[in-house]
Amino acid sequence: MARRVRFRDPGGGDDLDDGLVLWFPAPKSVTGEDVAELHLHGSRGVLAAVMAALSRLGLRLAEPGEFTRRAFLNGKLDLTQAEAVADLVAAETEAQRRQALRQLDGQLGEIYRGWGERLLRLLAHLEAAIDFPDEELPPQIEAEVADGSERLAKEIERHLTDGHRGERLRDGIAVAIVGPPNAGKSSLLNQLARREAAITSPIAGTTRDVIEVAIDLAGYPVVLADTAGLRDSADMIEQEGLRRALKRAEEAELRLFVVDACRSEDASGAAAWPGPDTLLVANKIDLATDRDALPAGAIPVSALTGEGLPALIAALASRIEQTYDIAAPVLTRARHREALETALVALQRSLTAGLPELRAEDLRLTWRSLGRITGRVDVEDLLDVIFADFCLGK
Ligand code: GDP
Hints:
Bound molecules: guanosine-5'-diphosphate
Distance between the termini: 48 Å
Strand content: 5-15%
Strand order of the largest sheet: 5-6-4-7-8-9
Mean pLDDT: 84
Largest sheet: 6 strands, mixed
Number of strands: 9
Low-confidence stretches: 196-208, 390-394
Order of helices and strands: EEEHHHHHHHEHEEHEEEHHHH
Structural class: alpha/beta
Radius of gyration: 29 Å
Shape: flat
């Protein structure tokens, strides 16, 4: 319900502002409680007066995340959705926004809830078989439970082997710039950062050997890392730089291997990272006299003149798109991964446990771990299924 109102101090009767009130009666509000939204002229004077009047009524400012927390406690959101609110607020690129919105829609929680329900059913059947052996339960129950558990374990396993795509998309896709010294790696990083940097921020913990810049590359969050030049050296500090560069390059999702276009023999170093995740870049194309002599498959650019950079960006974006443009909901946090891994271990253990009681205990542990992801763990759920599926109690 929306109403145009004069805001008046309930104590002194002073007019405070002229505006709008939106009233959302419980339970159909964002938190599930009665919610009133005051739309005010946002000046400091109006805010101070209205806030003072509200606090005289015993109201206070919300704590960080309090609305979302109340929404969760009132069953309006599950935990993955609450996390999605935080991600949506923090989203810096299109891809992050899309992923957070999908999660807010509940698609991720849906998967886990679905698994939880299946598990609950398996558990309920097994418990019933244990607790009520004299009742007329179908004899194939145990086989069904084993079969169902195995299928579920396979699904969880598949979900976990997603290459950390959701987490990467949330935190930034690491792209390492590697190559021999003086190939123009730093220059290329500067060029890419300047062109694409909607957000250019140095990241804490950088060393003088590895410099990182967060950029928005065609809608994807990318963390570009410029590494120390790769070359054999007797200098201890340089060796350490080299070690870090190699480690960073190993860990990165993608690599740009940059060589000087006039020294195409350097391209052989790229062989250390075979496969589609390393793009070979021939820099200083402005100096190259014979462009036909470039290493095969290299993307020609000049970090000095900017030539070829759009093509390089397009190639990088298309490589990222292939991996990260996913419609299916993926897990986005280490928290989800840990809980799923714990669930999977228990589920797999249940398959080899000898006694039905032990199997049931492992299924219960699995179910609890799954429930922790969405924040719904409730023994009542188990009782509900037990008593709904079998007419056992009298
Ligand atoms: P890094 O050691 O690989 O990081 O290389 P730098 O980015 O420091 O570049 C080494 C030298 O090459 C510098 O003097 C740059 O100005 C120069 N340089 C880098 N890119 C280009 C380019 O595309 N064309 C030309 N002519 N010079 C370049």
